[in-house]
Amino acid sequence: MPDNKEHVRIESGENRQLQALQSNAMAVKAVAAAVESTIGPKGLDTMLVNEAGDVIITNDGVTILDRMDVSHPAAKMIVNVAKAQQAEVGDGTTTATLLATAIVDEGVKQVARGVPVVKVIAGIQRAVRYALHKMKEKARPIRELEDDWLQRIAFTASRENEDITVAVMEAVHLVGRDKLLENNFRLSQAVVAHPRATSAVFSGILLNKTRANLQMPRYLENAHVLVLADSLEPEWVDDESLSTEAGFNKQEYLRKQFLAALESLMGLGVKLIVTSRGLDSLAEDILTDSGIMVIQRVVPDELQKVAEHTNAKILKRNGLYKPIEEIKSYLGLAEEVEDNDVLERVRISSSKGKPFATILVSAATDEVVEERERITKDAASAVQAAVRGGYLPGGGALELSLARDVEKFRETVQGMERFGVGVVSEALLRPMTQVVANAGFNPLEKIEMVKALQLKRESDSLGIDCDRGVVVDMVEMGVVDPLLIKFHALGAAGEVATAILRIHSIVRMKNY
């Protein structure tokens, strides 16, 4: 005969687990509610207000989630997945949030029905892997920068701002396909916003620094460039050694050696020096009198950009004492260098090294320029993602097609993992459901219409026209999304959702 107390303990443990899951699901849904109304062509804006009365109005998912006051641990996990989506591919944060929320919600429903959570998680993981595989199969490639789909993708990602679309596409052609395919290059990082500037696109980079002092030249042409990953100052002996005659003499020797190195640089015609650290005061005076611009304390990423763009090789301080001909081989060339007083940044343009572009974004107010900066970065990220991986139908059409594929896959899965696979097929309906709801139509009615026609025509691109409420081909309408954005959104959503479903209980830690 079973022990009743043991039976009660088992039930109590199961209840605690289910309560934890339901608590997490509710917190996750609350976060998703803040961004779900923004998705689709009829999506609305969200107003964020802090205690000081500062206001941000935006429909950018990651901005809303990042600025929200979120305290629940599971909710923070959803916020983090949106940030990861933004960092990796620069767009698709709202889709990632909705998919993760839907997977958690559907997963909790299955656990509440009595399906072991480990089986639900295993099924979700299998279904997500399968869906990602099918997604790659459905992608349409982009082989040339002149492909009309690139401009269409930029136009959609820029919230149909024509000037932003033109600017992004101009930058795309300036940097070229090879640069866009580089793993460490992000076109979105080329976007710079300033409320008092004039919007423009130019070949070159903007350093977030100004010249070391205002007496240095503000503008240079055809300038030889030295890039120094160090401070521009002599080596120093320690204080204890300096108190001795030998130490003093050594310091004087090092100082004279340094000044001789400066003379060599001036003899080589160096007109721009970019350093990662500080600048010796005497060297500053000498270089200023010689008409040389110095930009100091430049961060490593920007220092690398200067070197690549001007075709310079980065030098360390001890390299200043190399033979003159060897130092000469380290120098780059900049056609134009300008310290812009309005932007408080230095612009460097060169054609000798790797191509870079800068997209300068402006608007009437700080609030508007911040939003335009976010939109421009989204458009730049979307275009680069499309070049790298191709594109897919948008408007939730692709996800609806994947839901049908996953449902077929479910028939091949044995045991209780089938229920986890079903979780993903249900969750994949969420993007179109929300897009249709935001357009003011009945999602149940419209999605059933699309399902039937997609199946009949064997199509992955049929969706709903949010103006008329009729079934249309999303690709023919120009509504497409880059594969990499959708791919990362689903993959990240699956990872965070299963992590949340694994949480067995919530325990408050003591403070130390």
Rg computed from alpha carbons, rounded to a whole number of angstroms:
29 Å
Q: Based on the structure, what is the oligomeric state of the protein chains?
A: single chain
What structural class do you assign from the helix and strand content? alpha+beta
The unreliable regions are: 5-11
Number of beta-strand segments: 15
Strand order of the largest sheet: 5-10-9-6-7-8
Q: What percent of the residues sit in helical stretches (DSSP H or I)? A: 40-55%
First-last Cα distance: 47 Å
Rough outline: elongated
Mind summarizing the main beta sheet?
6 strands, mixed
Proportion in β-strands? 5-15%
Helix tally equals 19
On the 0 to 100 scale, the average pLDDT is 89
Give a written overview of the molecule.
With 512 residues, this protein is an alpha+beta fold. It is built from 19 helices and 15 strands. The protein has helices at 4-35, 61-67, 73-89, 93-112, 117-138, 148-157, 162-175, 177-181, 239-242, 245-267, 281-289, 300-310, 324-328, 366-389, 397-410, 417-427, 430-438, 443-457, 483-501; strands spanning 46-49, 55-58, 191-193, 200-203, 205-207, 219-228, 270-275, 293-295, 332-340, 345-349, 357-361, 391-393, 462-464, 471-473, 480-482. The strands form five sheets. The chain has a six-stranded mixed beta sheet. A three-stranded mixed beta sheet has the order 3-11-4. Strands 1-2 form a two-stranded antiparallel ribbon. Helix 3 (73-89) runs antiparallel to helix 19, helix 6 (148-157) crosses helix 7 (162-175) and helix 6 runs antiparallel to helix 14 (366-389). It is elongated. The two termini are 47 Å apart. The relative contact order is 0.17. The model is unreliable at 5-11 (pLDDT under 50).
